[in-house]
Protein: UbiH/UbiF family hydroxylase
Amino acid sequence: MTRISTDILISGGGVAGLTAAALFGTEGYSVICVDPAPPVTEETAEGADLRSTAFLQPSLAVLKAAGLWDRLAPFATDLQVMRIVDAGGKIPSPRITRDFNATDVSDLPFGWNLPNWLLRREMVRRLEDLPNVDFRPGTATTGVLTRDAEALVDLSDGTKVSARLLIGADGRNSPVREALGIGVRTMRYGQKALAFAVTHSEPHGNVSTEIHRSGGPFTLVPLPDRDGRPCSAIVWMERGPEALRLAALPEAEFNAEMTARSGAIYGPLRLETRRTVWPIISQVAHRMSGERTALIAEAAHVMPPIGAQGLNMSLADLRVLLDLCRAAPNRIGEDPMLDLYHRRRHPEVLARVTGIDLLNRASMQSAQPLRDLRAAGVASLYALKPVRRTLMRLGMGARG
Structure:
């Protein structure tokens, strides 16, 4: 039976786990990253993640520190304007439209959008360039025992690992979190999200658009042109039975329904990829650290895909962890460092999850008086310029 030692073991090879491996590997630490499933790195492959991720401005520093941004930038689409549309009238057409333009607060775009399957491809390639990173796809974490000096982790390939720091990046049902006995608070909405890519006749103009009616937001996020046609990623949130009905529709009927739901703001929409369906919950771990362990990403927090907060919060976790490791590189994984990580991240995570929860519940409302109240709220917040700028900065991940 093999026993090896490493500075950091990362349990989870999704986008957050791969970013963590590249970040700490670039920093010079010895890293092992494991995941039970090999990453799917082609759009048309079975199991490909057809969602996209909008990296907001504060995440750029993490991607650069990880040596990832130069790889990702050629594939990224700028997000210059965040548009909020209320289509909650008697017919599903826009009645209130408000644009939040990045030029009001910054010389840079709000963020940059990339497909998740492509992120995995480029991140795996980055890890191949780092000799101190051992990426083991197809390998699961099967046991965790922590003590004052180390985390002892059993892997499914028979390896036993001693790590100074264990990072749990293994999803909303995190085996690492469960092994440490850390509980979670979960909020369910009865919603699911459809994720896919479309082309349309009108250009998106680098505008990310959230359309609110009922059931949940319908979000179009710019992607690079596809075969000469403007292209967007869509996340369409609906109550569960309706989402499943939409996912099963013949393509022509689906195209017609999503064009109507979009208010035809970009003209007719045409489906270009498979439709994937994802469950929607909010969830927060009671703690983001344990003995020799830090929880990041969905192991620590899950929220509906509104305002591009999810993965950007995960990179904020990594930004804090990296700062703490740089401050005391010989003491990574010790209790004082991990307690400080929890104290710095957990209040902000709670605040953002609570805010997104409220926004999602407002977006789901179907009663006409509540739709009217939602529309009035959007209009009033936009009308006050200082409030609008503050909301934009908070949305990009700045602290309040």
Remarks:
- The two ends are 50 Å apart (CA to CA).
- The chain has eleven helices and 20 strands.
